[in-house]
Amino acid sequence: MTLLEFFSLLGGVGMFLYGMSLMSSGLRNAAGENLRVILEKATSNRFMAVGVGVLVTLMIQSSSATDMMVIGFVNSGLMTLMQAIGVIMGANIGTTVTAQLTAFNLSSYAPLILFVGAVLFLFIKKTLVRDIGSIILGFGMLFQGIAFMKAAIAPLAQTQGFINLLAGLHNPLLAVLFGVAFTALLQSSSSSIVIFQAFAVQGIVDYHTAVYLVIGAAVGSVTPNLLASLTANRNGKRTACLNLVFNVIRAVILGTLITIVPQILELIKMLSPDDIGRQIANTHTIFAIVAVVVEFPIAGLIVNLSQKVIPVLPEETRKSEDQRLIYINNFGDIPAAVALANAKLEIIRMAHFALENLRTATECFFENDYEKVQMVADGEDTVDFLDHNITEALVQLRSYRLNTRDRNKLTKMLLDVADLERISDHAVNLTEYMVKIHERKGSISEAGLADLKKMAEATLESVNMSIEVFASDDYANLDKVAKLEQNVDELEEYCIARHVERLMTKACEPYGGVVYSDFVTDMERCADHAINVAYSLSGREQEE
Prior knowledge:
This protein is an all-alpha fold. It is built from 24 helices and no strands. Helix 6 (96-102) packs antiparallel against helix 16, helix 19 packs parallel to helix 21 (404-439) and helix 21 (404-439) packs antiparallel against helix 24.
């Protein structure tokens, strides 16, 4: 192979990868938020989860992209590992469509496809048409890239060195390992399968060797997910791990099966007797389906194995217990008044989580405790979960036949949920201030810290009392709540005035001063949100 032919091969691979990316991006944009909605609706029904995995991967033509979205959903608590394994199985089937498409010899039509796609993408302003143009353009690039690769690979069939290199792949284990490494390098199983098809079409590898390359490619395809999971939480890492476990088991099962019953491969070849590219595509698809059928019943064991590899910590167990609804799992046919009472109990739970998160965040800030940054992040996840699910339940309750009083109460409870969620958001802000001030090596003067501690103590007292009033319906204490909130307002003015004095005398470092002001503002807003909750169901109006 000459240097020019090598560059042509690289260019073909690059064009194929970019075409895949462009097509995937166009499909995602055309589908809009439907992809995320579809994935979120993947329920504990594993059959549905598999179907969702197939559908989404067909829509975006990238199992890696589907798997990364799944990692994101599991990471944020919107999907369980059992739901994730079903979607991942479906994605392994959906991704085989690319090989089926590329088995068609459409290279001669690629220029026309490129032209049509370019016209739609460049000259039509309508967003949907541009997205469709992007899909067509990516499709054309995909086939043009294949044409470049085939042309560059053709001379390799007469290159003795390359023939000797691939001769070792007649050993099934070496072929599988080569497939793993090659796919990990390209970060795309679709790309590696296409190249293996090109090898086979040019006579560089035979069908049986290509089969083992395909098996290895499935394992190598997990590499992007493993890399993406590095920044995820432990559940996100487990998602990538169970994907790896699924594909390793798949490789073992398929390798064993075709070794014991080699006639299987002959049957697959008979589906397309004179087209080795199609034979490899069919093998890819059939193997994916067989793997899902065989491993579907043991999905629970795969999930358990991933939890053995990355053990479940006690705090994770506590978090999973917190992130559930206790009182409003199912309204059923209970009276509206009872449903509202149960919803209020759930909001009280959320209120205590928000208060605890605020308290932990203030400790984190004053103690410079980086461990509590994660504690607050976990608490925020719990509050967000309750916010989403309580709101959804209350919206569902609006369809009940409610009287005017109950409807007003429900509306106010929806506002309460939003206020409590904002308190937890402000708690997260405090941890971010602590991290930022240390990263920039800023500081706050001792006098400034003393003022902030007074502000934090007053705010926590105000939030705590507001929640007590809301939980107990003891509205006799509303005046006390109002005084506590007024005290926080006065402290805000006092702290800002003192802060300005320190800035004028240069007793306070500038960046530390910015954090100081933000801290005071967050505390005051927490007290505002809390008093809204205290007054919401009282029937009394807040005094200005």
